[in-house]
TrEMBL record:
Lipid bilayer topology: Multi-pass membrane protein
Compartment(s): Membrane
Keywords: Membrane, Transmembrane, Transmembrane helix
Transmembrane parts of this sequence: 16-34, 91-111, 118-135, 141-161, 279-296, 302-326
Pfam families from the UniProt entry: FUSC_2 (PF13515)
Name of this protein: FUSC family protein
A single cellular component GO annotation: membrane
Species per Swiss-Prot/TrEMBL record: Deinococcus terrestris
Domain Integral membrane bound transporter: 199-322
Length: 335
């Protein structure tokens, strides 16, 4: 386990999908910055997660899976906007996030989406629902939809380029190994992890329960029990290291242009390492998430750093407890 924290997996020309994904973030954010509407940046950022899916799949399956992912992300954003505009309280948001976690995990597994699990869906719903001043529904969802379409276009161009230059890099998606019973346990783990993580986050004094929910869900998507435990440990170690990186980044002058530039660079670096070493990628994901928070709703950097570290450790420990305790008889025998 300790060696896995330090080992880098083999490179797969990761800079190509990383560049495409970073471009999918850069163009919408720079457009909003030029437009003077950075208040809409959070909606564009979550829609840009469309580009993360199907990163090495051929054109046909990539377009199908990214279109499906875009639709699910937009639905999660729409739900989050509605929850924010109707004044749903934090416990209601936690319940919604837990239900989205379970449903999203089953849909992702049944439809063969990669990355697996419901982390991005939970992150989108809970973060947007927690906004104190949500944007008008039409503006927010319009920006999100335009971003998703742009990322779909980049995905098509990336697949066409890879088919011409390096067709050996494209891989068909692996089928989900989960049967009906496996899907039920998979969904139950996601619901419990998100719900308990959110409840613990609300009872803590730090005020960012969405981060605890995401950290709790993060380990569940791995393929087997050992992988889930390993991912939970990576989440803790990588986030704590990322908080140190974020402390340096947040000490820089708070220029909007600089923040957007750093977000794009961090997104690129996170995608370069995410398939090679999860904990290393979190060195960049953590400051990326904090910069996005500062871009939308600026706050005290020291408080943000403390909350990020505490909520992530709390959520990841809950996720690990769910991984260890919530297993079917077959999973226990295999383990």
């Amino acid at each position: 386990m300790i060696r896995e924290l330090l080992r880098l997996g083999p490179a797969q020309r990761d800079h190509l999908p990383a560049g495409r994904i970073a471009l999918g973030v850069a163009v919408p954010l720079l457009t909003l910055l030029w437009w003077g509407r950075l208040d809409l940046s959070i909606y564009a950022s979550f829609a840009a997660f469309t580009g993360i899916y199907a990163r090495h799949e051929p054109l046909g399956t990539r377009l199908r899976h990214q279109s499906t992912s875009a639709a699910l992300l937009l639905a999660c954003e729409a739900l989050g906007i509605w929850l924010a505009q109707t004044g749903t309280g934090p416990w209601g948001v936690t319940l919604a996030g837990a239900l989205v976690s379970g449903v999203g995990a089953v849909l992702a597994a049944a439809l063969g989406l990669r990355p697996a699990g419901s982390l991005f869906f939970v992150f989108a719903v809970t973060s947007i629902a927690g906004l104190s001043r949500p944007a008008p529904f039409g503006e927010a969802l319009g920006v999100a939809a335009a971003t998703a379409v742009f990322c779909l276009g980049l995905g098509v161009l990336g697949a066409l380029l890879s088919e011409r230059v390096r067709p050996d890099e494209l891989q068909p998606p692996s089928p989900s190994p989960l049967d009906e019973a496996g899907l039920s346990w998979h969904s139950l783990r996601h619901v419990l992890a998100a719900g308990l993580g959110g409840a613990a986050g609300l009872l803590s004094p730090f005020g960012h329960s969405a981060w605890a929910m995401v950290a709790a869900v993060a380990p569940i998507s791995a393929q087997d029990h050992r992988g889930r435990v390993q991912r939970g440990l990576h989440r803790i170690v990588g986030t704590l290291g990322g908080v140190g990186v974020a402390a340096v980044v947040l000490a820089l002058p708070p220029s909007p242009w600089l923040l957007v530039g750093l977000i794009v660079v961090l997104q690129f670096l996170a995608e370069v390492f995410v398939t090679r070493n999860y904990s290393v990628s979190l060195l960049f994901v953590t400051p990326l998430a904090l910069l996005m928070t500062q871009l939308t709703q600026p706050g005290d950097p020291a408080a943000l750093l403390t909350a990020r570290a505490a909520e992530t450790v709390l959520g990841a420990l809950i996720g690990l407890a769910v991984v260890v305790l919530v297993r079917s008889g077959a999973e226990r025998r295999d383990g």
